Structures are given as C-alpha cells and as structure tokens.
DNA sequence: CGGCATCCGTGACGATACTG
DNA sequence: CAGTATCGTCACGGATGCCG
C-alpha cells in the first residue's frame, strides 16, 4: 500500500503528472477494462491475465484515491462490489485511443502466448465509427457492444447490446484481427462481405458506406 | 539488461502492445525529451531529475531495440554520441499530447519539489497552435522554439530558433503556468498583454487572433 | 569529463496460499 | 467472491568506479 504519497516524477509537466496517476504497470489496462462499464474484482482479474491479486487490489485502491474509479455495492440480491470509472476516468479514452492507434503497427499476427478478449476489439472499432448509435458486435471470442459517439456513460460493454441495437455486426477472427491491426477498414470489410452487417438506420448506413467525407 | 525478450503483457490488443514498448517507467518522458531533437546522454540525465544512470542507459537501449530511437556519433570535433527519435518514435507525439491534455487538470500550482524545464511548456503551447511556422519562446526558465505544424523533424527544440523565427513570444512564469494548466488560452494571454508577441506573419496573426475557426 | 557499468539497499511485482 | 498474507524475484534509485 502507499501510506502517504505515491511515487511521483515531481516534474511541473502535465504529461508527467498524468503518468504519476496512470503510469504504473496495469493501470491503463484496468481503465480499458472499466471503459466497458462496472466490473467486479473477479471479472477484472479474469480479463487481465498475468496481474497478481495484490497488485490489482492495490491499483484499484490507487485509482479510487486518484479519482479515476469508484467502488460501489450493487443492490441486493447479489450484493457484490463493482468498480466503475468516474467521469475523470472516462476522460482517459483519448489516451487509450492514441496508444492503441500507435500500437496497431506493433500488433502483427496473434502470438500463441497472447490472450484475447472480445471487447478488446472495441477500441479499434470505435475509432472507425463516428456514430451516434448502438452497435452489437459478434466475434468468435464473444459478443460486445459499442455506444458509438456516446458523450457519457460506458463507451462499450461486454455481452449483447442492452436493448435493440441500431446495427449488428458479425466478424470472423481474421477480419477482426485485420481491422484491429489497421490493415483493413471496417467499411471495406463490410463491402467485401467479410463482415456481416444487419440494420437499416443511419449507423448501419455509415458502416456500409464508410465515413462521411 | 534484457537478454532475450522484454516483459510483455501478452495481450492481443494494440494498446497493450504500445504499453509493452513505452509503458515502462521513464520511457515516455525520455520520448518527451527527445522530441526536442537529438540529445546527449548527459543532457537527458540532467533534464530528467530522479532517473538513475543505469535505468536511463537501459531505457535508451530498449528504445533503440524497439525502433523508437537511434544512437549516432556526431561528426568530429566533439565526437559525442547523441540519441535521436526515429519517425516511429516521433509518432508518439499524439500519445504525449493526449496524456498532457488529460494531465492538465492535475497540474495545479507548482509544488516546491517540482522540477521545471523551459521546453516542457512546448507540448501545451503546441496544442494551442495550428501553424505552420517557427516560433521562439522566451521564459524565465529559458528559451526554446516550436516547429508548429511540422510534418517531420524535431517538433520543438531547446534554445533560440535555428534561423529567423516567424514569431517571438515572451512569457512570465505565471502566464506560462496558466497556459500549461489550461486555465488561460494563449491568444487571450497575448490580447491581455500578459504575453509579449512580436512578428507580423500568418503565425503571429494566428497567435494574436486566436485559432482560425 | 562524458558515458556508462557495477554494486547495493529498498520497494514493486508475480505466484501461490489462505481467510472472512 | 473478494480480497489479504507471505515470499521470492526483479526493477528501481543512489552512489561509486571505470575507461575512453
């Protein structure tokens, strides 16, 4: 734990200050998980293979103290604790987007040792969509949904869309990988028939026709 | 050192891959320093108070191996080694900008323990300028220059501008701090007389009139 | 003197075991 | 389920030494 003050770079620079709060190992990946909405400790631990229990608990405590997340008890029955990003924490989305955009070039093919979760494809997909609208995405690894263009609330979430989505997308692994790696654009995949799109609203139209430009 | 492979999150996610390369302590701050152009080991060590000599050497080696930076010997006389960002390394600018934008809210007033360097104000100023053009900035802490809107080459640099700048700016500490902290916009500071601007080209006009919108 | 390499004490990290 | 406890290992920070 950290009785008084956590380790700081002690530099009068906003980037260094940001790293004081989110520069520790695992912190930004926990933010990535929590962008999918409230999660339980056990879920976080399951979707962050390699993190030890004490480090996860310590990071969550630091994030609470730093104003990035809150711990809340769900109403009974099932009175479990969930962790949830604050608005300040959700503001880290551009940081993760910038990191993800830069990291696409390093992604390459999936290594045998690489873990995968369905909702990890949410960030790259989100960068390819203007929205607004609710999109449900079905991969072989699982199902998740995107709140494209959402100004508040969770940006994406695990499982089927809560309510009727504006569009549904079904992708095979190779296509999802190519999009995540930046080698294929979503609209092109849809047009080429590598992705199955259903829906007829404006969001489905954007996905079919590519970005409005 | 790292004989075989550096520590990885082993996640098939571009953000995690990015953190594999730049997530270690000090790495992104070294990138921030190198965005100012080629620097010697000793200069880096001087502008990164708190970093130990072996960690700095190790990070530089990792960054070389990761394709972020190169080590080059300057032509004699003064045949010293300098470290320089590759194009890939310079592509991290949006990451530092996103981190810096988020961190502005944490900056507040300068703490007694905080180190300051003049060119650390380059990143927040750069976000306020569209450019293109060469701007020389004079603070109490020192002088630096910005290549606003530059598509390649160093984004900013220590010391006076190399050649005649398109505009010159003189700021006092309070004004620079307020701009860095996001509480004051550059154009407003200029208009209110808190910043002394000279020059009559398009860049000076932009700084006087605010962003073209 | 600049550019590291080495040594050492401390703390962070990762794995496992255990507890309310 | 949600952590805490324990422990071995490694990374970090500080100092010092070496070598051109």
Describe the secondary-structure layout:
The structure is a homodimer of 213-residue chains.
Chain A: H1 14-22, H2 27-34, H3 41-47, H4 53-65, E1 69-73, E2 81-85, H5 87-90, H6 93-107, H7 122-127, E3 133-139, E4 142-148, E5 156-158, E6 167-171, H8 173-180, H9 186-191, E7 195-198, H10 202-209
The structure holds a DNA duplex (20 and 20 nucleotides).
Helix content range of chain A: 25-40%
CATH topological fold name of the largest domain in chain A: Nonspecific Lipid-transfer Protein, Chain A
Q: How many independent structural domains of chain A?
A: 2
The CATH superfamily of the largest domain in chain A is identified as: SCP2 sterol-binding domain
Shape of chain A: globular
As residue ranges, the low-confidence spans of chain A are 1-5
Q: What is the count of DSSP helices of chain A, taking H or I runs of 4+ residues? A: 10
* % residues in beta strands of chain A: 15-25%
Structural class of the secondary structure composition of chain A? alpha+beta
Order of strands across the biggest sheet of chain A?
Answer: 5-4-3-6-7
- Computed over alpha carbons, the radius of gyration of chain A is 18 Å
Please, what is the average pLDDT of chain A? 91
Largest sheet of chain A: 5 strands, mixed
């Amino acid at each position: 734990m950290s009785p008084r003050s956590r380790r700081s770079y002690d530099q009068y620079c906003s980037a260094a200050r940001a790293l004081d709060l989110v520069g520790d190992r695992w912190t930004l990946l926990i933010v990535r998980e929590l962008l999918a909405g409230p999660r339980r400790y056990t879920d976080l631990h399951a979707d962050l293979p390699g993190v030890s229990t004490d480090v996860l608990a310590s990071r969550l405590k630091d994030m609470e103290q730093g104003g990035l997340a809150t711990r809340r008890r769900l109403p009974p029955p099932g009175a479990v604790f969930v962790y949830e990003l604050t608005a300040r924490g959700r503001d880290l989305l551009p940081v993760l987007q910038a990191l993800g955009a830069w990291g696409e070039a390093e992604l390459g093919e999936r290594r045998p040792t690489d873990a995968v979760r369905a909702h990890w494809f949410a960030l790259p997909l989100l960068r390819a969509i203007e929205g607004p609208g609710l999109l449900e995405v079905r991969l072989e690894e699982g199902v998740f949904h995107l709140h494209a263009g959402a100004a508040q609330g969770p940006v994406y979430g695990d499982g089927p869309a809560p309510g009727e989505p504006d569009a549904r997308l079904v992708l095979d692994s190779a296509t999802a990988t190519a999009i995540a790696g930046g080698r294929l654009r979503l609209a092109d995949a849809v047009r080429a028939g590598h992705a199955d799109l259903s829906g007829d609203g404006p969001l489905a139209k954007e996905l079919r026709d590519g970005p409005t430009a």
